[in-house]
Amino acid sequence: MGNRNTSLVDTDISRVLAPKGAHGLYERLVAGGVIFPELRDDLSLTGAAFALRDDFRCLDDLEGPGSSQRPSDSTKPKRTRITAIDISVTGYGWRTGSNGRPELVVHSSNNGLFMNFDGGFTVNCPSCRSAVELGTDGSEGLYDALDAWCQDPDSSQLRCMSCNASAPLSAWQSDNHEFAAGHLGLTLWGEHLLGVVERPSGASTKLLKSLFSGSDGGDPAVVFCNI
Prior knowledge:
Mean pLDDT: 88
Number of domains: 2
Structural class: alpha+beta
Strand content: 25-35%
Number of helices: 4
Order of helices and strands: EHEEEEEEEEHEEEEHHE
Helix content: 10-25%
């Protein structure tokens, strides 16, 4: 179990459509040979998750700094650093159903916020890119927006102190890849997959994003988290 993770977050999908999107993502990951179909509760810090298949090595060249220089398959570690995959849906959690298959049930602890817990985070205005750092002077509005999101995400707005533009919290992503708010997320536990942002046109990045977005083709927010 690692305290590093990488999340891909759909910041556009509605809360109503997120459960259907999560089931579709699960089916793609199983059919693509990425995860085992069974839920396990001993893999991540947040509860039920899916184990990565040992023979799925398409994430190796995304792991950590300098991973793009690994010369050949023969130099790869015997196991990938990614230990688990968690599919997060706002207001829901996974459990094993009566038919033995994973199913989503109402679970209030999943709030759709993906953030760096160790060291804090900043968010950037979608209009002028000005940064707001949680805990600093002028970040009171960010606290209010986070609280509002947890109560009613559709009502959560944050106004920029620099340009005075107001936008939903989900539009305030982090240029440093420290925060995103969205109703559907894919979290890979065990490593920061820096290659996703360093090599956006790479084959492994395209594969991971295509598995996440399916036929929608939307580009997810990427969050690197330390817990």
